[in-house]
Structure formats: structure tokens, C-alpha cells
Amino acid sequence: ELDQRIRSLPPGYGLRHFKNGFSALSQVSGPERKNMAKILLGCLVGSIPPDASQAIAALLDFIYIAQYPTHDTTTLGYLSDARDRFHNNRDYFITVGVRDHFNIPKFHSLLHYIDSIKEFGTTDNYNTEMFERLHIDFAKNGWRATNQRDEFPQMVKWLSRQEKISSFENRLNYRAITTDSPPLQKPLRSIPKYPNFPNRRLDLIEEKHNAPNFSHYLKGFLNKLSPHPIPLRQLEDTSLPFTKVDIYNTFRFNPVSIHEDEEQDVDAVKAMPKSRTRIGRVRVIFTLPKVMDTRLGPQELPEYWPKTPLAYVEWYSPI
After folding, report:
1. What is the pTM assigned to this prediction?
2. What's the rounded Cα separation, in Å, for the pair 167 and 156?
3. Its domain of life (predicted)?
4. Which of 204, 207, 227, 306 is surrounded by the fewest CB atoms within 10 Å?
5. How many CB atoms sit inside 10 A of residue 283's CB?
6. CA atoms within 13 A on the CB side of 261
7. How many other C-beta atoms are found inside a 10 Å radius of the C-beta of residue 142?
8. Each residue of 28-62: pLDDT tens digit?
9. CA distance 82 to 105
């Protein structure tokens, strides 16, 4: 029943959709456990008694509050309250025979979290995630960069080069800060390096992507950017100075994280040419060609035309 509820969940921003439920997972990684915790309580409500729901909710609250990057007396009070709520409602699992007792070291450690935070600081100072990540960076990626023969000297050289690159990047960021220029950071929007359909004809886009007015609205968009726009009546009789554009299937949003070490959520937008929708649909993701065809031969694009990727969105009537 739990797997059925999980499969029935609609997609949501920041949530992973487990299309086969939890039972199909043979090995569960750390990120997968975090994604499971995000949807677990919502899938259990209504199928278990209130005491069990309260115990699970309290335990999840404790886990999330314990991961705060900063703490004060108020947040530690929240942590203590979540721990007490779990202990007050956990007896349900003993009553129904799920467990005989809770004498487990991990549950006992909940009693020491507040004292540890007061004495040693927030939990991100001494958790094991950092070392797990370093194992990937220093061991796995280093080994993959070798030819798998006499790999240790190659791994040492590779790590040395990576450290030099990291130091140089930190230096550039420092200079950018001291010169009041923005530091190097990941762009807010990104597209794949290579288009999925390079040089696709405009008429083929209108047919395959179910966007019959693509050329019409593209002309209007580019005309608005011109310092001397053409009147609308004349615009209908003009043609675009190019016949092909590069097409992409998706692009991604990379929101800025509040905390430097926090895992960033990445939201993907996919162009779905012939899918039904309610509000709007991204029909085409494309970039303008680097040159345009004219009677005098190939010429560079006007400076006021965008060099960044564009998206053709078909908006539906308001609900």
C-alpha cells in the first residue's frame, strides 16, 4: 500500500518521484534517504493511527532541525520538543509488535544532540557527509582519471592539479570581491553544451513541435528589440533573415543557495512539443544562428538581438 501511495504522488518541485516505490530500491544512498524523508509522512497519514504519525513527524522534525547551519536557544527548544514528542508517542510501535524495545544506540544518541551542539557547535562541523564526499573527489574521480595501471602516482598528480585549479579559482574570487566585481558562480540558467536538434528548419519546428505560430511570434519578438521597429502591417510581409535555429530539449534553473555548503536544488524545464497542459507549455527551446542570410550574403546578427537561449512558450487562458 505504501508503494502504491508513493507511485501516485504527483511530481513536485524539489521532490523525487519514486515511480516504483521504496521496495524496488536495493541500495539506498544518502541523497535517496533525504528524498524519501521528504515524502514519507505525507504517504503515511491516514493509513496509520495518530500516535504513529505523531512519532514519525516528531522524528523527522528532529532530523531536520538538527541539521540547521546555525542554532540558538529557540531552535534548541524546538529540537528538545521534537525529541520529547517522539518519546511520548513511540510506544505505539511496541504495542503493535513492530519492535520489542527502543534500546538502540542511534535513538539513545538523540538525548545528547543538544549538549553536543552547545559544546561543539552545529552538526555540520562533525558529521560524516564531508568525508563521504571527499572519498568521491579524492578516490573515485582520481582513479577514473587514470589508465588503471600503476594508478597511485597518477592519482597523486591528478589531485595536485585539482588543488592548484581550486586555489586559482579561490584567488580569482578573492580578487573579484576586492575589486567590487561579481565572483565566479554558476549561472542561474544553463542549457546542454550541444543542441539536441542542430540547424532545424523553422517550418519543421512548427510541424514537429506543434508550434504553428513560432515564426510569427519570433519575428514580433525580434522586431520589438530593434531601435527602429517595423510597423505590424509590414512585418507580416517580411521574412526572418534565417531559416534554421538550434533546438534544445531542456534547460535548468540553478537557484542561489542561502548557505554555501547547502545542497542546491536544480529545477529542469523540458520542452514537450505535443503534450496537453492546463496553464502553459514550453514548445521550443532554441538559440538564434550566429549569422543571418541576406541578399548581400551572410552577415552578423544585430547587437540588440539576444545571444542567450530563448524559449517559445504557449500560454493558455487564465483559469
Report:
1. 0.52
2. 16
3. Eukaryota
4. 227
5. 23
6. 11
7. 19
8. 877 888 888 888 888 888 888 989 999 999 999 99
9. 18
In the numeric block, which cell numbers belong to residue 232? 505590424
Identity of residue 182: P
Residue with cell 579559482: 169
